[in-house]
Amino acid sequence: MGNLSEEIRVPAEMGYLRELLAFVASCAERSGFGQTRLREIELVMEEILVNIFNYAYPDRKGDVGIACRSADDGKLLVEITDQGIPFDILSLNDPDLQAGIEERNIGGLGVFFVKQLIRDIRYRRESGRNILTLTIDPTPAVL
Amino acid sequence: MGNLSEEIRVPAEMGYLRELLAFVASCAERSGFGQTRLREIELVMEEILVNIFNYAYPDRKGDVGIACRSADDGKLLVEITDQGIPFDILSLNDPDLQAGIEERNIGGLGVFFVKQLIRDIRYRRESGRNILTLTIDPTPAVL
Amino acid sequence: MEISTRKEGSVAVVSVKGRIDAVTAPEFEKGLSALVADGDLTLVLNFNGLEYISSAGLRSILVTAKQLKAKNGRMLFAALQGPVKDIFKISAFGSLFKICDTEEEALREI
Amino acid sequence: MEISTRKEGSVAVVSVKGRIDAVTAPEFEKGLSALVADGDLTLVLNFNGLEYISSAGLRSILVTAKQLKAKNGRMLFAALQGPVKDIFKISAFGSLFKICDTEEEALREI
Ligand SMILES: Nc1ncnc2c1ncn2[C@@H]1O[C@H](COP(=O)(O)OP(=O)(O)O)[C@@H](O)[C@H]1O
Ligand SMILES: Nc1ncnc2c1ncn2[C@@H]1O[C@H](COP(=O)(O)OP(=O)(O)O)[C@@H](O)[C@H]1O
């Protein structure tokens, strides 16, 4: 990412969740995002990070990195990086929201929220890393 | 630094001070440091960081990075990195604490505090970077 | 997160304050499962003090709902606040559960 | 940081709450310099509510002390709390300034 970006890298463990959320919140605040959009970003980041904690490193420990940078039109670019197993969030199907309680899958809502709240998501796998780039509009989506 | 360290990198500007202090505080808390030592570490980090904001990049913008890692004997290793002008904190003389108000230099206390509160400080210049490594004992020094 | 439970006749009213996120969801789920295991078949969740819920919390709700369903029990929700209401909406939880404006309304529904 | 100033006869009593760090020190220094510029020659700094001070704050104090010295004025300190007291100690500020346990004692000193 560009020169004046902000970055953080910590072990991919639940104990670091709040610290990482605070980091992204202060990036977004600095970009002038409003309370409603900050709440949406918090949710999106929790969903992505908790998935990395839970699934990215099935048989070893590893790190997760976040980089933030201001982009054009008051947008915020957030890049999440891990060295876990290859996983493209965009490859998942949306959950079946019509299903009743017995049929309904208990998983799948996390990634769905991310896609509902952020329009511009890009994924790439590069030298052993998953790199997820969110280009976040300051306008709230639904929350 | 080792694999399971924590890192942050942000623009070297005063607006990031509180965020950087919070980052180091949570590393030190996670290492089990007590309140008194946490306060000392906060002071030390403020002094080092504010100097980087004020002096490291006299004619351009730049970044500052902090990495934390647990070391032996419950110690915490903190590495502060910038790409500013070469500066070795250890090269400065202590201020003259005997001087009266008129003679006394208004500067020089920041680096002095750092040296008083942290016993093990190492400096190196490496591929255009100042790298300052503090090995921080959990035992309070004076505060 | 703070959970408190009281009985209103045969109904267990569970009030949750604060945040249900991936850190607190396990405790939330344990609380609900304990009620179901103790034989409670009707749960009213009062979310008046709930500021935040993520998919981890919805997952706990679905797990409990499935346990209740297997015993012919049910779950109702009351007093959802703005952000939580929106999360329920995008998750289409309204088609799975009765969602009431107030706890009183939920208790009358039973 | 919060600063409040009142006069006790010819003495300006400045009470500071919170933190004097590199972010807030400029405001602190401006407040002190304004008093000196207005002709106040005796300042009592009540640090009872001060939790934290870094070298940026001590720098502001030294700047003001030099301005006062040039006008034959002086600065006294009162009610330093633990961490601030220790910072004053390692900076040997006790040899530059009268440091009192309470504001009353400082006012009696003058
Ligand atoms: N970072 C990741 N690495 C590998 N697999 C992942 C990752 N994130 C999500 N997944 C997979 O995608 C599924 C859906 O994730 P999500 O929508 O968050 O629901 P949940 O985690 O509740 O199952 C997960 O169950 C998991 O199999
Ligand atoms: N990162 C740095 N790069 C260059 N020079 C520095 C740096 N940090 C400190 N200095 C120099 O060391 C001096 C002493 O610093 P310090 O003890 O913090 O006192 P002060 O900043 O109040 O002068 C500074 O005035 C500056 O000239």
Output the radius of gyration of chain C: 12 Å
Helix count of chain A equals 3
Oligomer type: heterotetramer
Shape of chain A: globular
Could you tell me the number of beta strands of chain C? 5
Largest interface: A-C, 25 and 24 residues
Q: Please describe the biggest sheet of chain A, giving its number of strands, its sense, and whether it closes into a barrel.
A: 5 strands, antiparallel
Beta-strand proportion of chain C: 25-35%
List cofactors, ions and other ligands. adenosine-5'-diphosphate
The poorly predicted ranges of chain A are none
- Total number of beta strands of chain A: 5
Q: Please tally the helical runs of chain C, counting DSSP H or I stretches of 4 or more residues.
A: 4
Radius of gyration of chain A: 15 Å
**Percent range for β-strand residues of chain A:** 25-35%
Helix % of chain A is 25-40%
Poorly predicted runs of chain C:
none
Order of helices and strands of chain C: EEHEHEHEH
Task: Provide keyphrases for this structure.
heterotetramer, A: 143 residues, alpha+beta, five-stranded antiparallel β-sheet, 3 helices, globular, C: 110 residues, five-stranded mixed β-sheet, 40% helix, binds adenosine-5'-diphosphate
Q: Your description of this structure?
A:
The complex is a heterotetramer, with 2 copies of chain A (143 residues) and 2 copies of chain C (110 residues). In chain A, helix 1 (17-30) packs antiparallel against helix 2 (35-56) and helix 2 packs antiparallel against helix 3. Chain A has 3 helices and 5 strands; from the N terminus they run βααββαββ. Chain A is of the alpha+beta class. The model of chain A has no long low-confidence stretch (mean pLDDT 94). Chain C is built from 4 helices and 5 strands. Chain C has helices at 25-37, 55-70, 82-90, 103-108, and strands at residues 2-8, 11-20, 42-53, 74-78, 98-100. In chain C, helix 2 links the parallel strand 3 and strand 4. In chain C, helix 1 runs parallel beside helix 2 (55-70). Chains in contact: A-B, A-C, B-D. The interface between A and C is medium-sized, with 25 and 24 residues. The structure holds adenosine-5'-diphosphate (2 copies). One adenosine-5'-diphosphate binds next to helix 2 and helix 3 of chain A.
